[in-house]
Amino acid sequence: MQGAPGCCCHGVHGARGSGHPVSGMGGIVRRRLPDEGVEVMRVVVVGGGIGGLALGSGLRRAGAEVSVFERDTDVRATGGYHITLDGRAQEALRGLVAPEIVERMLASGSALRLRDPDAFWDRRGRVLGYGPELRDDPSLDIDRITLRALLAEAVGADLHLGKVVSGVGYDGDGAPVVSFEDGSSVTGDLVVGADGAHSLVARFLAGGPTNAPAGIVGFSGRTSVGNLSAGERERLGTRSGLVVGPRGAALYLGFLDPVGNAVLDRPELRASVTTGPTFIWGAMFPDTSATGALRKLHGSALRAALVARFGELGWSSQVLEVLEAADPATVAAFRFNAASSRARDLAPWGAGRITALGDAVHATPPTAGMGAGAAIRDAADLVERLGHSSALVPAVAAFEAAMRERGAEVLAAAMGPVRWILFTDTVAGAALTRAATPVLAAAARARGLR
Ligand SMILES: Cc1cc2nc3c(=O)[nH]c(=O)nc-3n(C[C@H](O)[C@H](O)[C@H](O)COP(=O)(O)OP(=O)(O)OC[C@H]3O[C@@H](n4cnc5c(N)ncnc54)[C@H](O)[C@@H]3O)c2cc1C
User: Fold this and answer.
1) How many domains does the chain have?
2) Does residue 365's CB lie within 6 angstroms of at least one atom of ligand 1?
3) Closest ligand 1 atom to Cα of 69
4) Distance in Å, CA 195 to ligand 1 centroid
Protein backbone atom coordinates (compact mmCIF):
# COMPACT_ATOMS: atom_id res chain seq x y z
CA MET A 1 0.00 0.00 0.00
CA GLN A 2 1.28 3.44 -0.98
CA GLY A 3 2.48 5.56 1.87
CA ALA A 4 1.48 3.03 4.50
CA PRO A 5 3.79 1.18 6.83
CA GLY A 6 5.38 -1.62 4.90
CA CYS A 7 4.70 -5.29 5.19
CA CYS A 8 8.16 -5.85 6.54
CA CYS A 9 8.15 -4.87 10.17
CA HIS A 10 11.08 -3.01 11.70
CA GLY A 11 9.68 -3.39 15.18
CA VAL A 12 11.52 -1.90 18.08
CA HIS A 13 11.03 -5.20 19.85
CA GLY A 14 12.11 -7.33 16.98
CA ALA A 15 15.68 -8.63 16.79
CA ARG A 16 16.66 -5.48 14.93
CA GLY A 17 14.78 -3.20 17.19
CA SER A 18 16.90 -3.18 20.30
CA GLY A 19 18.69 0.04 19.40
CA HIS A 20 18.95 3.14 21.57
CA PRO A 21 16.87 6.26 21.22
CA VAL A 22 18.83 8.95 19.47
CA SER A 23 16.67 11.92 18.83
CA GLY A 24 16.36 14.97 21.00
CA MET A 25 13.24 16.18 19.17
CA GLY A 26 10.83 15.95 22.06
CA GLY A 27 12.62 12.72 22.72
CA ILE A 28 10.88 10.56 20.20
CA VAL A 29 10.76 7.71 18.24
CA ARG A 30 13.92 7.50 16.21
CA ARG A 31 16.22 4.72 17.29
CA ARG A 32 19.78 3.97 16.34
CA LEU A 33 20.40 0.39 15.35
CA PRO A 34 23.79 -1.14 16.02
CA ASP A 35 24.39 -1.97 12.38
CA GLU A 36 22.23 0.29 10.24
CA GLY A 37 21.91 3.78 11.60
CA VAL A 38 18.57 5.32 12.38
CA GLU A 39 15.29 3.46 12.24
CA VAL A 40 11.93 5.15 12.54
CA MET A 41 9.12 3.67 14.58
CA ARG A 42 6.11 2.80 12.44
CA VAL A 43 2.73 3.34 14.00
CA VAL A 44 -0.61 2.32 12.50
CA VAL A 45 -3.60 4.24 13.87
CA VAL A 46 -7.07 2.78 13.32
CA GLY A 47 -9.66 5.58 13.20
CA GLY A 48 -9.31 9.21 12.18
CA GLY A 49 -11.70 10.80 14.66
CA ILE A 50 -10.51 13.32 17.22
CA GLY A 51 -8.14 11.05 19.18
CA GLY A 52 -6.66 9.23 16.16
CA LEU A 53 -5.92 12.44 14.26
CA ALA A 54 -4.44 14.10 17.35
CA LEU A 55 -2.19 11.07 17.79
CA GLY A 56 -1.26 10.96 14.11
CA SER A 57 -0.25 14.61 14.17
CA GLY A 58 1.74 14.25 17.41
CA LEU A 59 3.63 11.18 16.21
CA ARG A 60 4.39 12.79 12.89
CA ARG A 61 5.77 15.90 14.57
CA ALA A 62 7.87 13.69 16.83
CA GLY A 63 9.47 11.93 13.90
CA ALA A 64 7.60 8.63 13.79
CA GLU A 65 6.28 7.12 10.60
CA VAL A 66 2.54 7.09 11.05
CA SER A 67 -0.49 6.06 9.02
CA VAL A 68 -4.01 6.87 10.15
CA PHE A 69 -6.73 4.76 8.54
CA GLU A 70 -10.28 6.14 8.60
CA ARG A 71 -13.41 4.62 7.09
CA ASP A 72 -15.03 7.99 6.31
CA THR A 73 -14.27 9.35 2.89
CA ASP A 74 -14.47 13.01 3.93
CA VAL A 75 -13.62 14.34 7.40
CA ARG A 76 -16.05 17.24 7.02
CA ALA A 77 -19.03 15.20 5.87
CA THR A 78 -19.65 13.14 8.98
CA GLY A 79 -21.49 15.54 11.24
CA GLY A 80 -21.11 16.20 14.91
CA TYR A 81 -21.98 19.22 16.95
CA HIS A 82 -19.56 20.89 19.30
CA ILE A 83 -16.65 19.72 21.40
CA THR A 84 -15.50 21.33 24.63
CA LEU A 85 -11.76 21.55 25.17
CA ASP A 86 -10.67 22.42 28.70
CA GLY A 87 -7.27 23.87 29.58
CA ARG A 88 -5.65 20.43 29.85
CA ALA A 89 -6.88 19.38 26.40
CA GLN A 90 -5.65 22.64 24.86
CA GLU A 91 -2.27 22.18 26.51
CA ALA A 92 -2.08 18.66 25.08
CA LEU A 93 -2.99 19.97 21.61
CA ARG A 94 -0.16 22.51 21.76
CA GLY A 95 2.27 19.61 21.90
CA LEU A 96 0.53 17.62 19.17
CA VAL A 97 -0.08 20.10 16.36
CA ALA A 98 1.88 22.96 14.84
CA PRO A 99 1.43 26.42 16.43
CA GLU A 100 -0.29 27.80 13.32
CA ILE A 101 -2.97 25.09 13.56
CA VAL A 102 -3.44 25.82 17.27
CA GLU A 103 -3.99 29.47 16.32
CA ARG A 104 -6.65 28.51 13.78
CA MET A 105 -8.37 26.38 16.41
CA LEU A 106 -8.37 29.29 18.85
CA ALA A 107 -9.66 31.65 16.16
CA SER A 108 -12.48 29.13 15.48
CA GLY A 109 -13.36 28.42 19.11
CA SER A 110 -15.94 30.09 21.31
CA ALA A 111 -14.56 31.15 24.70
CA LEU A 112 -16.41 30.04 27.82
CA ARG A 113 -14.96 33.01 29.72
CA LEU A 114 -17.06 35.34 27.51
CA ARG A 115 -20.30 33.48 28.33
CA ASP A 116 -22.72 34.12 31.18
CA PRO A 117 -22.65 31.48 33.94
CA ASP A 118 -24.48 28.24 33.15
CA ALA A 119 -28.11 27.98 34.24
CA PHE A 120 -30.45 25.31 35.56
CA TRP A 121 -34.09 25.72 34.61
CA ASP A 122 -37.21 23.71 35.27
CA ARG A 123 -39.55 22.52 32.53
CA ARG A 124 -41.59 25.71 32.81
CA GLY A 125 -38.50 27.86 32.18
CA ARG A 126 -38.07 29.01 35.77
CA VAL A 127 -34.50 29.54 36.95
CA LEU A 128 -33.43 27.05 39.61
CA GLY A 129 -29.89 28.35 39.96
CA TYR A 130 -26.75 29.42 38.19
CA GLY A 131 -23.30 27.88 37.99
CA PRO A 132 -20.08 29.70 38.88
CA GLU A 133 -18.71 32.69 36.99
CA LEU A 134 -16.80 31.58 33.91
CA ARG A 135 -14.50 34.58 33.50
CA ASP A 136 -11.42 32.59 34.55
CA ASP A 137 -12.40 29.42 32.68
CA PRO A 138 -9.89 28.70 29.89
CA SER A 139 -12.19 26.18 28.13
CA LEU A 140 -13.47 26.65 24.61
CA ASP A 141 -16.21 25.15 22.46
CA ILE A 142 -15.40 24.29 18.87
CA ASP A 143 -17.40 22.64 16.08
CA ARG A 144 -16.47 18.97 15.91
CA ILE A 145 -16.22 19.25 12.12
CA THR A 146 -13.84 22.22 12.40
CA LEU A 147 -11.64 20.52 14.98
CA ARG A 148 -11.53 17.32 12.98
CA ALA A 149 -10.75 19.12 9.71
CA LEU A 150 -7.88 21.07 11.30
CA LEU A 151 -6.46 17.91 12.88
CA ALA A 152 -6.73 16.14 9.52
CA GLU A 153 -4.73 18.97 7.98
CA ALA A 154 -2.08 18.43 10.64
CA VAL A 155 -1.85 14.74 9.70
CA GLY A 156 -1.70 15.57 5.99
CA ALA A 157 -0.83 12.76 3.61
CA ASP A 158 -0.50 10.28 6.48
CA LEU A 159 -4.30 10.17 6.75
CA HIS A 160 -5.83 7.49 4.52
CA LEU A 161 -9.56 8.02 4.05
CA GLY A 162 -12.05 5.43 2.88
CA LYS A 163 -10.14 2.57 4.54
CA VAL A 164 -12.41 0.31 6.57
CA VAL A 165 -10.48 -1.81 9.04
CA SER A 166 -11.92 -5.31 9.26
CA GLY A 167 -9.47 -7.08 11.57
CA VAL A 168 -6.43 -6.77 13.77
CA GLY A 169 -3.99 -9.35 15.15
CA TYR A 170 -0.38 -10.50 15.14
CA ASP A 171 1.57 -12.12 12.30
CA GLY A 172 3.85 -15.14 12.63
CA ASP A 173 6.75 -12.90 13.76
CA GLY A 174 4.65 -11.31 16.48
CA ALA A 175 4.23 -8.03 14.61
CA PRO A 176 0.81 -6.37 14.81
CA VAL A 177 -1.22 -6.56 11.60
CA VAL A 178 -4.22 -4.53 10.51
CA SER A 179 -6.44 -5.84 7.71
CA PHE A 180 -8.88 -3.92 5.60
CA GLU A 181 -12.21 -4.70 4.00
CA ASP A 182 -10.60 -4.26 0.56
CA GLY A 183 -8.34 -7.27 1.24
CA SER A 184 -5.11 -5.33 1.93
CA SER A 185 -3.19 -5.34 5.20
CA VAL A 186 -0.34 -3.45 6.91
CA THR A 187 1.99 -4.11 9.80
CA GLY A 188 3.81 -1.70 12.08
CA ASP A 189 5.76 -1.60 15.29
CA LEU A 190 2.68 -0.44 17.15
CA VAL A 191 -1.04 -0.42 16.33
CA VAL A 192 -3.33 2.02 18.13
CA GLY A 193 -7.11 1.64 18.02
CA ALA A 194 -8.66 5.11 18.01
CA ASP A 195 -11.81 3.73 16.45
CA GLY A 196 -14.38 5.07 18.86
CA ALA A 197 -17.07 3.60 21.07
CA HIS A 198 -17.63 0.54 18.87
CA SER A 199 -13.93 -0.14 18.52
CA LEU A 200 -12.90 -3.28 16.73
CA VAL A 201 -9.36 -2.98 18.12
CA ALA A 202 -10.43 -2.65 21.76
CA ARG A 203 -12.85 -5.55 21.30
CA PHE A 204 -9.97 -7.67 20.01
CA LEU A 205 -7.84 -6.72 23.01
CA ALA A 206 -10.57 -7.04 25.64
CA GLY A 207 -12.24 -10.09 24.12
CA GLY A 208 -15.61 -8.30 24.14
CA PRO A 209 -17.26 -4.88 24.17
CA THR A 210 -15.61 -2.19 26.31
CA ASN A 211 -18.78 -0.23 26.99
CA ALA A 212 -22.57 -0.54 27.04
CA PRO A 213 -25.59 1.69 26.32
CA ALA A 214 -25.92 4.19 29.17
CA GLY A 215 -29.73 3.93 29.35
CA ILE A 216 -30.40 7.29 27.71
CA VAL A 217 -31.19 8.23 24.13
CA GLY A 218 -30.15 11.62 22.85
CA PHE A 219 -31.28 13.89 20.04
CA SER A 220 -29.42 17.02 19.00
CA GLY A 221 -29.90 20.03 16.77
CA ARG A 222 -28.69 23.54 16.09
CA THR A 223 -30.71 26.69 16.60
CA SER A 224 -29.42 30.04 15.46
CA VAL A 225 -30.07 32.65 18.15
CA GLY A 226 -31.41 34.90 15.39
CA ASN A 227 -34.33 32.47 14.89
CA LEU A 228 -35.55 32.90 18.48
CA SER A 229 -38.13 35.44 19.62
CA ALA A 230 -36.79 38.53 21.39
CA GLY A 231 -38.25 37.29 24.69
CA GLU A 232 -36.56 33.92 24.46
CA ARG A 233 -33.26 35.49 23.41
CA GLU A 234 -33.37 37.63 26.51
CA ARG A 235 -34.37 34.77 28.81
CA LEU A 236 -31.61 32.47 27.63
CA GLY A 237 -28.88 35.10 27.29
CA THR A 238 -25.41 33.94 26.31
CA ARG A 239 -25.37 30.96 28.60
CA SER A 240 -25.40 27.20 28.37
CA GLY A 241 -27.70 25.32 30.67
CA LEU A 242 -29.76 22.30 31.55
CA VAL A 243 -33.54 22.04 31.76
CA VAL A 244 -34.74 19.17 33.91
CA GLY A 245 -38.14 17.65 34.34
CA PRO A 246 -39.64 14.49 35.79
CA ARG A 247 -39.67 11.14 33.96
CA GLY A 248 -36.07 11.35 32.81
CA ALA A 249 -36.59 14.15 30.31
CA ALA A 250 -33.79 16.71 30.10
CA LEU A 251 -32.67 19.32 27.62
CA TYR A 252 -29.09 20.57 27.43
CA LEU A 253 -28.48 23.93 25.77
CA GLY A 254 -24.95 24.76 24.68
CA PHE A 255 -24.29 28.36 23.65
CA LEU A 256 -21.43 29.04 21.29
CA ASP A 257 -20.41 31.95 19.17
CA PRO A 258 -17.05 31.44 17.49
CA VAL A 259 -17.44 34.85 15.81
CA GLY A 260 -18.50 37.22 18.61
CA ASN A 261 -16.85 35.21 21.39
CA ALA A 262 -13.77 33.97 19.54
CA VAL A 263 -10.95 32.81 21.79
CA LEU A 264 -8.46 34.49 19.47
CA ASP A 265 -9.73 37.52 17.58
CA ARG A 266 -8.14 36.75 14.21
CA PRO A 267 -11.08 36.52 11.74
CA GLU A 268 -8.72 35.74 8.86
CA LEU A 269 -7.84 32.43 10.58
CA ARG A 270 -11.41 31.42 11.40
CA ALA A 271 -12.52 28.00 10.11
CA SER A 272 -15.68 27.53 12.19
CA VAL A 273 -18.76 25.89 10.73
CA THR A 274 -20.87 27.90 13.16
CA THR A 275 -21.01 31.47 11.90
CA GLY A 276 -22.87 33.30 14.68
CA PRO A 277 -24.49 32.91 18.11
CA THR A 278 -26.00 29.43 18.20
CA PHE A 279 -27.56 27.01 20.63
CA ILE A 280 -26.57 23.40 20.14
CA TRP A 281 -29.10 21.42 22.12
CA GLY A 282 -29.34 17.86 23.29
CA ALA A 283 -32.68 16.34 24.29
CA MET A 284 -32.35 13.29 26.53
CA PHE A 285 -34.85 10.59 27.45
CA PRO A 286 -34.64 7.18 29.10
CA ASP A 287 -34.00 4.49 26.51
CA THR A 288 -37.42 2.85 26.14
CA SER A 289 -39.28 1.43 23.17
CA ALA A 290 -41.25 4.71 22.87
CA THR A 291 -38.17 6.93 22.75
CA GLY A 292 -36.30 4.33 20.70
CA ALA A 293 -39.01 4.74 18.02
CA LEU A 294 -38.04 8.42 17.70
CA ARG A 295 -34.66 7.31 16.40
CA LYS A 296 -36.30 6.22 13.16
CA LEU A 297 -37.41 9.80 12.43
CA HIS A 298 -35.38 12.56 10.78
CA GLY A 299 -35.45 16.30 10.16
CA SER A 300 -38.70 18.17 10.77
CA ALA A 301 -40.60 14.98 11.63
CA LEU A 302 -38.10 14.24 14.41
CA ARG A 303 -38.13 17.86 15.58
CA ALA A 304 -41.97 17.83 15.78
CA ALA A 305 -41.96 14.48 17.61
CA LEU A 306 -39.46 15.77 20.18
CA VAL A 307 -41.54 18.88 20.84
CA ALA A 308 -44.65 16.67 21.19
CA ARG A 309 -42.87 14.29 23.58
CA PHE A 310 -41.73 17.12 25.86
CA GLY A 311 -45.23 18.65 25.61
CA GLU A 312 -46.80 15.40 26.85
CA LEU A 313 -44.46 15.61 29.85
CA GLY A 314 -45.73 19.09 30.76
CA TRP A 315 -42.92 21.21 29.34
CA SER A 316 -43.93 24.80 28.50
CA SER A 317 -44.00 25.99 24.91
CA GLN A 318 -41.58 28.78 25.87
CA VAL A 319 -38.90 26.25 26.84
CA LEU A 320 -39.53 24.30 23.64
CA GLU A 321 -39.11 27.31 21.35
CA VAL A 322 -35.41 26.54 20.98
CA LEU A 323 -36.32 23.12 19.55
CA GLU A 324 -39.04 24.46 17.28
CA ALA A 325 -36.67 27.09 15.86
CA ALA A 326 -33.94 24.53 15.06
CA ASP A 327 -32.72 23.98 11.54
CA PRO A 328 -34.46 20.65 10.74
CA ALA A 329 -31.51 19.47 8.67
CA THR A 330 -29.39 19.44 11.84
CA VAL A 331 -31.77 17.42 14.03
CA ALA A 332 -30.55 13.87 14.60
CA ALA A 333 -30.34 11.07 17.14
CA PHE A 334 -27.06 10.17 18.83
CA ARG A 335 -25.92 7.36 21.04
CA PHE A 336 -25.01 7.38 24.70
CA ASN A 337 -22.56 4.60 25.40
CA ALA A 338 -20.51 4.45 28.58
CA ALA A 339 -17.58 2.41 29.81
CA SER A 340 -17.12 1.62 33.49
CA SER A 341 -16.08 4.53 35.68
CA ARG A 342 -13.76 2.23 37.68
CA ALA A 343 -10.17 2.61 36.51
CA ARG A 344 -9.40 -1.08 36.97
CA ASP A 345 -12.14 -2.07 34.50
CA LEU A 346 -10.69 0.04 31.68
CA ALA A 347 -8.24 -1.41 29.13
CA PRO A 348 -8.56 -4.88 30.75
CA TRP A 349 -5.65 -6.43 28.89
CA GLY A 350 -1.92 -6.85 29.26
CA ALA A 351 0.22 -4.25 27.48
CA GLY A 352 1.62 -5.20 24.09
CA ARG A 353 2.19 -3.82 20.63
CA ILE A 354 -1.52 -3.23 20.04
CA THR A 355 -3.26 -0.67 22.22
CA ALA A 356 -6.22 1.71 22.06
CA LEU A 357 -7.24 5.15 23.27
CA GLY A 358 -10.17 7.54 23.57
CA ASP A 359 -13.73 6.28 23.33
CA ALA A 360 -12.42 2.84 22.31
CA VAL A 361 -11.28 2.44 25.93
CA HIS A 362 -13.34 4.90 27.95
CA ALA A 363 -16.48 5.67 25.92
CA THR A 364 -17.90 8.75 27.63
CA PRO A 365 -21.38 10.25 27.24
CA PRO A 366 -21.24 13.94 26.25
CA THR A 367 -22.88 15.03 29.52
CA ALA A 368 -19.66 16.48 30.95
CA GLY A 369 -18.14 17.63 27.65
CA MET A 370 -14.91 15.79 28.44
CA GLY A 371 -14.71 12.78 26.08
CA ALA A 372 -12.86 14.45 23.23
CA GLY A 373 -10.49 16.25 25.59
CA ALA A 374 -9.63 12.94 27.24
CA ALA A 375 -8.93 11.34 23.84
CA ILE A 376 -6.59 14.23 22.98
CA ARG A 377 -4.82 13.90 26.33
CA ASP A 378 -4.45 10.15 25.74
CA ALA A 379 -2.78 10.92 22.42
CA ALA A 380 -0.37 13.44 23.97
CA ASP A 381 0.52 11.04 26.75
CA LEU A 382 1.23 8.18 24.36
CA VAL A 383 3.50 10.34 22.18
CA GLU A 384 5.32 11.54 25.29
CA ARG A 385 5.83 8.07 26.74
CA LEU A 386 6.98 6.56 23.46
CA GLY A 387 9.56 9.32 23.29
CA HIS A 388 10.90 8.85 26.77
CA SER A 389 11.28 5.11 26.87
CA SER A 390 13.73 2.99 24.91
CA ALA A 391 11.38 0.00 25.15
CA LEU A 392 7.98 0.01 23.51
CA VAL A 393 5.87 -2.32 25.65
CA PRO A 394 6.80 -0.70 29.00
CA ALA A 395 5.95 2.69 27.46
CA VAL A 396 2.56 1.30 26.36
CA ALA A 397 1.99 -0.19 29.83
CA ALA A 398 2.69 3.17 31.51
CA PHE A 399 0.41 4.93 29.01
CA GLU A 400 -2.42 2.45 29.63
CA ALA A 401 -2.09 2.83 33.41
CA ALA A 402 -2.39 6.62 33.14
CA MET A 403 -5.26 6.31 30.64
CA ARG A 404 -7.24 4.13 33.09
CA GLU A 405 -7.12 6.93 35.66
CA ARG A 406 -7.92 9.63 33.11
CA GLY A 407 -10.81 7.62 31.69
CA ALA A 408 -12.26 6.89 35.13
CA GLU A 409 -12.14 10.58 36.02
CA VAL A 410 -14.05 11.75 32.93
CA LEU A 411 -16.53 8.88 33.17
CA ALA A 412 -17.31 9.72 36.79
CA ALA A 413 -17.97 13.34 35.75
CA ALA A 414 -20.15 12.34 32.80
CA MET A 415 -22.15 9.65 34.60
CA GLY A 416 -23.26 12.00 37.41
CA PRO A 417 -25.83 13.78 35.19
CA VAL A 418 -26.79 10.50 33.47
CA ARG A 419 -27.63 8.84 36.81
CA TRP A 420 -29.49 11.90 37.94
CA ILE A 421 -31.58 12.02 34.74
CA LEU A 422 -32.37 8.31 35.13
CA PHE A 423 -33.28 8.83 38.80
CA THR A 424 -35.97 11.34 37.76
CA ASP A 425 -37.57 8.47 35.84
CA THR A 426 -38.14 6.42 38.98
CA VAL A 427 -41.36 6.80 40.99
CA ALA A 428 -39.49 8.49 43.85
CA GLY A 429 -37.33 10.57 41.52
CA ALA A 430 -40.29 11.82 39.50
CA ALA A 431 -42.18 12.77 42.66
CA LEU A 432 -39.12 14.49 44.10
CA THR A 433 -38.51 16.44 40.89
CA ARG A 434 -42.16 17.55 40.76
CA ALA A 435 -42.08 18.62 44.40
CA ALA A 436 -38.61 20.14 44.53
CA THR A 437 -38.44 22.22 41.37
CA PRO A 438 -41.16 24.76 42.36
CA VAL A 439 -39.48 25.16 45.75
CA LEU A 440 -36.07 25.69 44.16
CA ALA A 441 -37.59 28.12 41.64
CA ALA A 442 -39.26 30.12 44.44
CA ALA A 443 -36.00 30.18 46.41
CA ALA A 444 -34.13 31.37 43.32
CA ARG A 445 -36.74 34.10 42.76
CA ALA A 446 -36.44 35.19 46.39
CA ARG A 447 -32.66 35.53 45.82
CA GLY A 448 -33.39 37.80 42.87
CA LEU A 449 -32.31 35.25 40.21
CA ARG A 450 -34.11 35.62 36.91
C1 LIG B 1 -19.95 11.29 13.66
C2 LIG B 1 -19.60 11.65 15.09
C3 LIG B 1 -20.13 12.81 15.64
C4 LIG B 1 -19.85 13.15 16.96
N5 LIG B 1 -20.35 14.32 17.47
C6 LIG B 1 -20.03 14.69 18.72
C7 LIG B 1 -20.49 15.93 19.26
O8 LIG B 1 -21.17 16.69 18.61
N9 LIG B 1 -20.15 16.24 20.53
C10 LIG B 1 -19.38 15.42 21.29
O11 LIG B 1 -19.09 15.75 22.45
N12 LIG B 1 -18.92 14.24 20.81
C13 LIG B 1 -19.23 13.87 19.54
N14 LIG B 1 -18.76 12.68 19.05
C15 LIG B 1 -17.94 11.84 19.91
C16 LIG B 1 -16.56 12.42 20.08
O17 LIG B 1 -16.00 12.75 18.86
C18 LIG B 1 -15.76 11.38 20.81
O19 LIG B 1 -16.41 11.06 22.01
C20 LIG B 1 -14.43 11.90 21.25
O21 LIG B 1 -13.93 12.78 20.32
C22 LIG B 1 -13.45 10.75 21.44
O23 LIG B 1 -12.71 10.61 20.25
P24 LIG B 1 -12.27 9.24 19.60
O25 LIG B 1 -11.21 9.60 18.62
O26 LIG B 1 -11.96 8.25 20.65
O27 LIG B 1 -13.53 8.70 18.85
P28 LIG B 1 -14.33 9.30 17.54
O29 LIG B 1 -14.08 10.77 17.51
O30 LIG B 1 -15.66 8.77 17.67
O31 LIG B 1 -13.53 8.68 16.33
C32 LIG B 1 -13.53 7.31 15.99
C33 LIG B 1 -13.23 7.23 14.50
O34 LIG B 1 -12.93 5.88 14.15
C35 LIG B 1 -13.49 5.62 12.89
N36 LIG B 1 -13.68 4.16 12.77
C37 LIG B 1 -14.45 3.37 13.56
N38 LIG B 1 -14.36 2.09 13.16
C39 LIG B 1 -13.51 2.08 12.09
C40 LIG B 1 -13.03 1.05 11.25
N41 LIG B 1 -13.39 -0.23 11.42
N42 LIG B 1 -12.18 1.38 10.25
C43 LIG B 1 -11.78 2.66 10.06
N44 LIG B 1 -12.22 3.68 10.84
C45 LIG B 1 -13.07 3.39 11.84
C46 LIG B 1 -14.81 6.39 12.92
O47 LIG B 1 -15.32 6.61 11.63
C48 LIG B 1 -14.39 7.67 13.64
O49 LIG B 1 -13.98 8.66 12.74
C50 LIG B 1 -19.03 12.30 17.75
C51 LIG B 1 -18.49 11.12 17.20
C52 LIG B 1 -18.77 10.79 15.88
C53 LIG B 1 -18.15 9.53 15.30
Assistant:
1) 2
2) no
3) 43
4) 7
Residues 351-380 pLDDT 10s: 999 999 999 999 999 988 899 999 999 999
In this structure, are 332 and 344 located in the same domain? no
Number of H helices, E strands in the chain: 13, 23
Which residue is closest in CA terms to ligand 1's atom 41?
A: 165
Tell me the torsion sign for CA atoms 41, 346, 254, 322.
positive
CA–centroid distance, residue 407 to ligand 1 (Å): 16
Cβ of 55 less than 6 Å from ligand 1: no
| 332 plus 218 within the same structural domain | yes
Q: List phi, psi (to 5°) of 438.
A: -65, -35
Bridging pattern class, strands 140-143 and 82-85: antiparallel
Take atom 3 of ligand 1 and give the residue whose Cα is closest. 80
Q: Are 122 and 441 in contact (CB under 8 A)?
A: yes
CB contact set of 141 (below 8 Å; sequence gap of 6+): 82, 83, 84, 85, 109, 110, 112, 254, 256, 258
**Domain harbouring 68, CATH code:** 3.50.50.60
User: pLDDT for 31-41, tens place per residue?
Assistant: 555 566 667 89
- In this structure, the chain runs to a length of 450
- The answer, yes or no, to whether residue 253 has pLDDT greater than 60, is yes
Q: Does the beta carbon of 282 lie inside 6 Å of ligand 1?
A: no
What average pLDDT does this structure show over 86-114? 98
> Residue 262 gets which letter from DSSP?
B
Note whether 131 and 218 are same-domain residues.
Answer: yes
Atom 13 in ligand 1: residue holding the nearest Cα: 80
| 220 CA: nearest ligand 1 atom | 8
Q: Around Cβ 301, how many Cβ atoms within 10 Å? A: 13
Q: For residue 200, is pLDDT > 90?
A: yes
Give, using CA atoms, the residue closest to atom 50 of ligand 1: 80
